[in-house]
Specification:
Helix content is about 45%, strand content about 15%. It has helices at about 15-25, 40-50, 65-80, 105-130, 155-170, 200, 210-225, and strands at about 5-10, 30-35, 55-60, 85-90, 135-140, 180-185, 235.
Length: about 250
């Protein structure tokens, strides 16, 4: 089930979860295109991977812009000739009190998180169909699509939309043998893991907070070449938190 030699695009790959996903695929021998609006960190990540002998390239991409996404796809084709895997990871969280949330705030989150997932999937799927690739698409959603805290309307709506978009794409692309799945991370710490408190870990059924590598492993599972029976699902990777009954004591 090796992905060695496969070509993959990962959006939002300069930092955090996206960076860990890029690292994992590069280590498995894939040719990885890292797309992000953060050019400084993106180039830094690529430089580090190239020093390790990995086949990687950075393409500065504002996923809110359709022309930027088309340029990303074109650049990938010019560089590697095809696209086998797409990980739609780019996203922002902007938690604004309900009555202060402007239409601009709303649009920024929806365009970055949800609209970009549709546009990237559409453009990459075209290439997969043209090249006859049994491609795979993974969309990074969130457990906030199913659970909410106050003042998360735009973010929650965007992630809920990603779940609905995922199974719609899975249906539309099934005739082309392209699988489409979602991953919903729970608490994934991208900062100083050692600074977390004991209670942070123990409140999870897994007894620990998640790491970016946990999401990378889930991506590798869903995009494994021989794993063509799993499509249209949402894989929750959250240490069991959404299945935990919580009451104040």
């Amino acid at each position: 089930m090796s992905i060695k030699g496969k070509v993959i695009i990962i959006t939002g790959a300069a930092n955090g979860i996206g960076q860990a996903i890029a690292q994992s695929y590069a280590e498995q021998g894939a040719s990885v295109v890292l797309a992000d609006i953060d050019e400084v960190q993106g180039e830094k990540t690529v430089a580090t991977l190239k020093q390790q002998g990995k086949e990687v390239r950075f393409v500065r991409t504002d996923v809110r812009q359709e022309k930027g996404i088309k340029k990303l796809v074109d650049t990938t084709i010019q560089t590697f000739g095809t696209i086998d895997i797409l990980i739609n990871n780019a996203g922002i969280s902007k938690f604004v009190p309900l009555f202060e949330c402007s239409s601009k705030d709303w649009d920024d989150v929806i365009d970055t998180n949800l609209r970009s997932t549709f546009l990237c999937s559409r453009e990459v799927a075209k290439i997969m169909c043209e090249n006859g690739v049994r491609g795979t698409i993974v969309n990074i959603a969130s457990t906030r699509a199913m659970m909410s805290e106050p003042h998360t309307e735009a973010y929650s709506a965007s992630k809920g939309g990603i779940l609905a978009l995922t199974h719609a794409l899975a249906a539309s692309l099934s005739e082309y043998r392209i699988t489409v799945n979602a991953i919903s991370p729970g608490w994934i710490d991208t900062g100083d893991y050692n600074a977390l408190r004991k209670i942070d870990h123990e409140q999870h059924l897994s007894k620990r907070v998640g790491k970016p590598s946990d999401i990378a492993k889930a991506c590798l599972y869903l995009t494994a070449p021989d794993n063509d029976f799993v499509t249209g699902i949402n894989l929750v990777v959250d240490g069991g938190m959404t299945r935990k009954m919580i009451y104040e004591e």
